[in-house]
Write a structure and sequence with these properties.
Length: 1202
């Protein structure tokens, strides 16, 4: 690097430039303008927990590079293509995807890793484990009562379910009362409830263990346990312990044995537990062998639990717990080892090196246990990507005589059982000219006799310079000038060069005058509790007006205004003078001295306080509803009184509550009080000064005012209409003290605003009134006036409002639907005229329902849906529709009363989409070289199925993954397939997707392993059959034997069966006879059939006679329209085009045959007069539907034994 002054100042610096060899740059920050491999800039945490109350879970992966990186993910070590899952939310030009909380997260659980790649290499993120929290539950169980003799120890097991930590255990009763714990009874770290010895009061039937999981906001309860303590008959000999149980020496309920080992991670809390049993109850002591207990050690749970917070290496060692009572002691030793997760000792750094140089990449880490180091290059293990010029020596990779092709991203991962660290190092082998990253033309300011640094951050510079005594160039290219002089001001040039070229920038240095303090703080008087203002005036260079800073010190310590609440600073204008400025310091009351760096004074403060209470309050000049109050002010305590506050208390409505009545200025000691009528008052006064409000005076004697007419009328009048022909008028009533006398009433006056009419008046005592028989939603004028026994209040003001609303009378017109895509439509309409709204417009509602899928012609009414759009509008968007379906919708408006009528139903169709996932995909048969598959079509094809995409690949372990084989099945009716020519005893992954013309839907997968040998059964193939035949008899079958029957094309080009089924041949008994061949059975069936025929004929004759009765005549004269509709034979007709078995095919005897159900027709939802309720439900009735009965005869060929 080379730094130069302008020619006029060149004599000051002596600069010698020396061009050296290209060198390696470590820990570089390469500008994105230069081609470079990817660098991970954002990655997910090591674990991501899916809490049920979170809306989504981001899997973050961001990277920079040139060319722009491309991203891919692995899940559990396998490729995970997040872009094909429509449920995942993706971001453009980013590796980040978001998993929505749609209630089905288990399939996303696993370990993920992100890879960012471009043509120069691949960077790898750390692994993130996506954990789906299952709801913890105790098993449903019946627990036997615990029976224990008095004096014996026992344990109640909790065995809490697993869940997201932390776990908190509580033992309580059914009534949620905590089980009392003491030295005898305690809860262990495992959640069990320990009893050192049983006593009779331990007998109860409702011991409940509660497990709390705060992070998922869940508490679960175990089945209540019952304990029965059998009283002991043993009597101790000591006379003072009569009827007592025998004493015994201690032993430990937990932990078992005499010693155990404890490992924990550095930073975790060390918890050691000893729970003893014995009589008397033992006490527990803790020691650390060879040393005392560490500082901060805590003993809890009545001495049974030792806790050392945030343990580290020094807390390792041997600990002992001792439980003792007068009869003996029991001990247990803990060997504690504090381990550490990996920590970098030398993290690999990115490097830019010249072609032909040797590159060293060092990676080392420490931890307990010792971390293992794993190297990768571009995300691939180093052993799988060999290079002749690359060697590994201990913790260092050496690349000899590096070439441009050696450029890559190296990953070093250090891991032990407590965690792992991953670091990416970008190794670039290129010859690049130098680049200066500091902006050209920067300006720098220096104060005379002070130092200054000019920056020049050069990239790929190899030049050096030698400077004068006051000038120094640092390794980062910065130029430091000490003791700046006025003559140092000027332009400087930074020159960087190497063997590939050179680059330079200019910088300007300005040298300014020093700053001096010219005014110091002065003494002043302050108030107690108020602020002390100390000012300081300084002179400084005019160009520093925006960068000036003043530092305050107290007792030689700088005051931090952000960290010291009692200090704060602010700027004040001392005088209107150029090159001068000031700052102020404030501090609460008291004597304040501020030594300043240049000079200081000790300012003195006079302390002030709030005023004393006024005295000698006197009431005079009694004039009914007014009285004069005089007082003598109290001491103002060095601060003049600014105001006097007069308060009152009345003893009728709010006795004991003081309210402010009047505020007078400081120069007054009397006031005339204006009062309400018919009230008994007491008064008091207090003073206010700049410090605050003083205490109040003693109250005056009681003063009673005479009654009077009201001084005001009600306020906040509200007009509401809850019913069409009513208007509710409500107002805020007068306060009791405002009544001014007994007999308060209100006069309500109203009249229509849109017509000429007189006021209608009503007098009420309550604060509401309902006007009956009003027109619907018309404007009114209303006024309310107060009145008591003394007269009327002032003339009231007039307010306006509307009478009650009614349902809108008409539906929106010109409803139209524009299909946006396969699941979204835009609905437009002409808004309802305001005269038809009959109320305040609330908005519009759209109701829609699915008529049928366009895949078949059957009408199946789906669930009804509704969306509400507030405000005045003429269009809306309806999302969430099923593709390739026919829908119907209506639009209605609503007001405060409710919904109006619906518009004429509009039918529309959505275009095709991709199918849903196949609900069934399974393996039906596995042989040595073949796998038989079967599946069912998707429940929602979302279009016309064009076929299926069947893929499979060998997955014998992670190291052996075969190529993905694809089979296009162009027959959408195919539901079975046989994969042939497979490897024996090999594991295959099978994928199936349904396809339409719009593409293929989500994949469903299955795994299967081929057999080592062919199964016991062997295929037998008949002779070729004529294509004109519709049946074939198979001979030579064994009775009571299961067979698989297939009908396949002779060419087997399409590799699929025309027909396949499993049959079971009957036994010999079913061939030669059964109940159906017995004579008595045949006779019984004939009798039943004859009796049924007679009953049907009688019913038919009786029905024909019904027309002769008078009731029938009345029905003919007054036909029931609803009944006619219900009996209309054309209602809900359907075409008989259900799927039927292939002609000549045979079904298994165990297979279930279902009759096709017809779907609902549009009549189910009404015609043009169709209505919806306010909540969107449909108004109407379903008529009877014709039932279509489908019978199926299942036959199986039977071979009679010879």
């Amino acid at each position: 690097m080379r730094l130069q002054r302008s020619p006029a100042l060149a004599a000051v610096l002596i600069i010698i430039t020396c061009v050296c060899a290209f060198y390696t740059t470590a820990a570089i920050n390469i500008p994105l303008e230069i081609e470079q491999p990817p660098t991970i800039t954002a990655q997910p945490p090591s674990s991501l927990i899916a809490f049920p109350f979170d809306e989504s879970f981001p899997m973050t992966c961001e990277a920079k590079g040139n060319p722009r990186p491309e991203f891919r993910w692995t899940k559990n070590g396998q490729e995970f293509n997040h872009s094909v899952d429509p449920r995942l939310m993706k971001e453009e030009n980013s590796g980040t995807f978001v998993i929505p909380n749609n209630g089905n997260l288990t399939e996303y659980q696993g370990t993920y890793r992100c890879y960012a790649s471009n043509t120069l290499g691949t960077a790898v993120s750390q692994e993130v484990e996506f954990i789906v929290s299952n709801e913890p539950k105790f098993p449903k169980e019946t627990l036997d009562p615990v029976k224990v003799d008095e004096g014996q120890p026992f344990i109640l097991k909790c065995d809490p379910p697993t869940g997201i930590p932390p776990l908190q255990i509580y033992w309580m009763t059914i009534n949620m009362q905590h089980i009392q714990q003491d030295e005898r009874v305690s809860v262990g770290l495992n959640g069990d409830l320990y009893f050192s010895h049983a006593v009779e009061k331990d007998s109860r039937t409702d011991y409940c263990c509660f497990a709390s999981f705060p992070r998922i906001r869940t508490i679960v309860q175990k089945t209540a346990m019952s304990v029965h303590v059998k009283p002991s008959k043993l009597i101790k000999c000591a006379p003072l312990s009569a009827n007592a149980i025998l004493e015994r020496r201690p032993s430990l309920l937990t932990p078992p044995g005499v010693q155990s080992e404890k490992q924990l991670v550095k930073g975790d809390d060390l918890e050691l537990e000893c729970i003893p049993e014995g009589i008397p109850t033992p006490k527990v002591e803790w020691v650390k062998i060879g040393l005392g207990l560490p500082d901060g050690a805590e003993v809890e749970n009545h001495g049974k639990l030792l806790i050392i917070p945030r343990a580290d290496q020094k807390d390792s060692g041997k600990y002992m717990c001792k439980a003792k009572n007068p009869l003996g002691e029991a001990v247990h030793y803990f060997t504690v080892t504090v381990e550490e997760p990996p920590e970098w000792v030398s993290e690999p750094q990115s490097q830019l090196s010249m072609i032909g140089t040797d590159v060293l990449i060092k990676c080392s880490a420490r931890g307990t246990p010792e971390p293992s180091i794993t190297w990768r290059v571009n995300g691939v293990p180093l052993k799988d990507s060999p290079a002749a010029n690359r060697r590994i020596f201990d913790d260092t990779i050496i690349i000899r005589n590096s070439k441009a092709s050696d450029s890559a991203v190296y990953q070093c991962e250090a891991s032990n059982r407590h965690g792992s660290l991953l670091s990416n190092a970008n190794i670039m082998i290129r010859n690049l000219p130098p680049m200066i990253l500091t902006k050209d033309g920067e300006g720098y300011f220096a104060v005379e006799s002070r130092g200054v640094t000019l920056h020049c951050n050069a990239f790929n510079d190899s030049s050096e310079s030698v400077e004068g005594s006051r000038f120094k160039i640092h390794d980062d290219g910065s130029l430091e000038i000490s003791r700046a002089e006025k003559s140092d001001a000027g332009q400087y040039t930074c020159l960087a060069k190497n063997t590939e070229g050179s680059s330079n920038i200019d910088a300007m240095l300005y040298v300014k005058d020093a700053t001096r303090i010219v005014v110091t703080p002065e003494d002043q008087q302050i108030l107690k509790g108020s602020e002390a203002l100390l000012s300081c005036l300084a002179e400084y260079d005019e160009s520093f007006s925006h960068d000036f800073e003043l530092v305050w010190e107290k007792d030689d310590i700088e005051i931090s205004f952000n960290d010291t609440p009692s200090f704060f600073s602010g700027a004040t204008s001392m005088c209107d003078m150029l090159s001068k400025g000031s700052k102020s310091l404030t501090h609460p009351s008291g004597l304040l001295a501020f030594p300043v760096s240049c000079d200081f004074l000790n300012p003195l403060c006079w302390v002030s306080d709030v005023p004393d209470a006024p005295e000698n309050l006197v009431l005079s000049e009694h004039r009914g509803r007014s009285v004069k109050l005089t007082w003598i002010p109290g001491d103002d305590h060095n601060s003049s009184i600014t105001d006097f506050i007069i308060e009152y208390e009345e003893n009728k409505w709010e006795m004991g509550k003081w309210r402010e009545l009047l505020r007078v200025s400081r120069n007054q000691n009397s006031a005339v009080l204006r009062l309400h009528g018919h009230v008994e008052y007491r008064f008091r006064v207090y003073g206010v000064n700049s410090v605050g409000a003083g205490p109040p005076s003693k109250p005056t004697e009681m003063y009673r005012t005479p009654p009077a007419a009201p001084d005001k009328n009600p306020e906040n009048i509200k007009i509401e209409g809850h019913l069409p022909h009513e208007m509710d008028i409500n107002w805020e009533p007068l306060l009791p003290i405002e009544h001014n006398g007994p007999g308060l009433e209100y006069k309500v006056s109203y009249r229509r605003q849109d017509v000429e009419e007189e006021w209608t008046e009503h007098t009420v005592k309550r604060h509401s009134f309902v006007v009956k028989n009003t027109p619907t939603f018309v404007p009114y004028e209303i006024k309310v006036q107060a009145k008591n026994n003394q007269g009327w209040g002032p003339e009231p003001r007039i307010v306006s409002g509307y009478s009650g609303e009614d349902f809108p009378s008409t539906a929106p017109d010109d409803v139209a639907v524009e299909v946006m895509n396969s699941s979204v439509v835009k609905v437009t309409w002409t808004p309802v005229h305001k005269d038809k709204l009959r109320g305040h417009l609330g908005g519009y509602r759209i109701n829609w329902w699915r008529l049928r899928s366009l895949v078949d012609s059957k009408k199946r009414h789906g669930d009804k849906h509704m969306l509400t759009f507030p405000g005045d509008r003429n269009h809306a968007t309806v999302p969430g529709l099923t593709p390739f379906s026919e829908y119907s919708l209506i639009v209605m408006t609503f007001n405060g009363r409710g919904n109006g009528p619906g518009s004429h139903p509009i039918n529309f169709k959505t275009p095709e989409g991709v199918p849903e996932k196949n609900p069934v995909f399974r393996v039906t048969d596995v042989q040595r070289h073949s796998i038989s598959l079967t599946w069912t079509p998707p429940s929602e094809p979302n279009g016309i199925l064009t076929g299926y995409l069947l893929e499979y690949q060998l997955i014998n372990g992670t190291e052996e993954v075969g190529a993905l084989q694809t089979i296009d099945i162009n027959n959408p009716k195919t539901s079975k397939w046989v994969l042939r020519d497979l490897e024996p005893l090999s594991k295959y992954k099978l994928y199936l997707r349904s396809c339409t013309t719009k593409g293929c839907g989500p994949v469903v997968s299955e795994e299967c392993t081929t057999d080592l040998e062919t199964s016991e059964g062997h295929w037998k193939i008949s002779e070729a059959l004529n294509t004109s035949l519709t049946s074939h008899t198979i001979d030579g079958l064994e009775p009571e034997t299961e067979y698989i029957v297939r009908l396949i094309p002779i060419s087997r080009v399409d590799n699929y069966s025309i027909f396949e089924d499993v049959i079971m041949t009957p036994g010999l008994a079913s061939v030669h006879g059964g109940i159906s061949t017995q004579g008595w059975f045949i006779g019984l069936m004939c009798a039943i059939a004859l009796l049924t025929l007679i009953v049907l004929i009688a019913c038919f004759v009786n029905r024909n006679k019904g027309g002769k009765y008078s009731v029938k005549e009345k029905e003919d004269l007054h036909p029931d329209v609803e009944s006619q509709g219900m009996n209309d034979d054309t209602f809900c007709e359907y075409s008989d085009n259900d799927e039927k078995p292939l002609k000549g095919s045979q079904h298994s005897l165990s297979r279930e045959i279902k009759a096709g159900d017809s779907g609902d027709s549009l009549v189910d939802y009404g015609d043009e007069d169709a209505q919806f309720n306010e909540d969107g439900s449909f108004i109407g009735e379903y008529g009877p539907r014709k039932e279509k009965r489908v019978s199926a005869e299942i036959k199986a060929p039977v071979q009679t034994p010879a």
